Amino acid sequence: MNTSIPSVPFRSSRRTRRVLAVLAGVVTASLALSGCLYSLIPESRPTSTASLPPDTDGVADDLLPFYEQELAWSACGAFECTTVTAPLDWENPATGEIELSVIRQRADSGEAIGSLLTNPGGPGASGVGLIRDSIDYAVGSALQEKYDVIGFDPRGVGESTAVTCLDAAAMDSYLFDIPADPRGSDAWTADRDEQNAQFAAACEANSDGILPFITTENAARDMDLLRAVLGDKKLNYLGYSYGTFLGATYAKLYPERVGRLVLDGAIDPAIPGSDVSTIQAIGFENALRAYMADCLTQSDCPFSGTVDEGMADLGTLLASVDQSPLPASDGRQLGADSLLTGIIAALYSQDSWPYLTSALSEALQGNPDVALQLADFYYNRQDGAYLDNSTEAFRAYNCMDYPLEDSEAAKAASDARIAAEAPTVAPYWSGPDPCAVWPYPPTGTRGAITADGAAPIVVIGTTNDPATPYEWAVSLADQLSSGVLITRVGEGHTGYNKGNACVDDAVEAYLLEGTVPQDGLRCE
Fold this sequence. Notes:
- This protein has 524 residues and is an alpha/beta fold.
- It folds into 2 domains: 235 residues, Rossmann fold (3-Layer(aba) Sandwich), CATH 3.40.50; 208 residues, no CATH class.
- The chain is 39% helix and 16% strand.
- A hairpin with a 2-residue loop joins strand 12 and strand 13.
- Helix 10 packs across helix 12.
- GO terms for molecular function: hydrolase activity.
- Keywords: Hydrolase, Signal.
- It holds the Pfam family Abhydrolase_4.
- This is Alpha/beta hydrolase.
């Protein structure tokens, strides 16, 4: 689930949806899980997009063919779907074209006040899938009543023109094979470098030349194209996790076209990648400690004693499977990397903690199947198949968005802080940077986004969010000239539509009526 920097093997937001895992049965003491790890603005009220023509105000001549296109919607289940043609290279529109997959649920009222674009995070998560599979979790009923809710797969993702790298068997080998050499040794590092190089070469060979154009800035420009062809003068947007970076980037590029933006589970665009990695590691450690404190109060918890003692025992389990991986029923082995992936997958929502308890209990008894199921949720893998290309798209975006960092002093300082403040995850957090062998140099930069002139932008942070730590929301709200901060006090990733009426009411009053929340609103 990840906004994380390229050197970290974990997304900060694989999906913004909670793990909707449900107990499917108990077979030989192992759980089977199923589900997905998926005052007023001084503007007039948004108007219906039902029959509005594309908005081409201020569009350069060479982009007019894209902005003037008319959409052909067709039924796709309970929704409507279409494709939008965008330039491959926004700086040189004649270079080529890509397709963007778009899904729409019409406003339940029949009279939409506008379009509400959504993004579930990643980078690499499918916005089409979010709406098609989980619209009630993505967007509350009050917003569905009044908005045409729009999901889209950003460039490189899912059903849009997509990054393609490995087949399922090769992806299994890349993600789950156990290195032959001890972690951290020169041979281990050389092996990981080679695996990363092979992955990058496969992406280049199979992605039809799109890799250098898979960037958040290009995706934000695509989002303005979507706004225009949907007939909206301004962008109304609800973005989660990585989607906050996408939304903030849009505001940087088009402050005058910002309508009502809500950025939930915020990323700080100003901090360097190494700091992103460090803060994420600490965030997951803190969430793991919160889980452990709760686990120790439960009768089925496999740990005992104090939180520190439980964390020490968990660290022993990680070290044990790192040295002696556990064979699974499907032929894979559970090593420390996959176990930590499964742990992290379950930390995104407190609702998933019981499944983490089951996974750890089973692993302590030598059965890794439940832990691997959690890891599979993280990668959207089911029955040996990968249901989307989110892992490939995640790598492609991060390798282009984050400048490479080669300061040994900065890396040493980061490693030391992680070891001190995240001792359980620290041994398995760092490794060779896969983006060091990416076929194209990064074009993204890190810096504060102010979006001067934009309408109020609402930023939501959750106090113990493991993937996008609360301090990032505070920082982004401070950076944005019109930023307004809402704080959800609690556990888990993101804050809206999680059962906190204070957050939900404030977000919906803003998106529906333009009522700007009190800056600093704190929702217990």
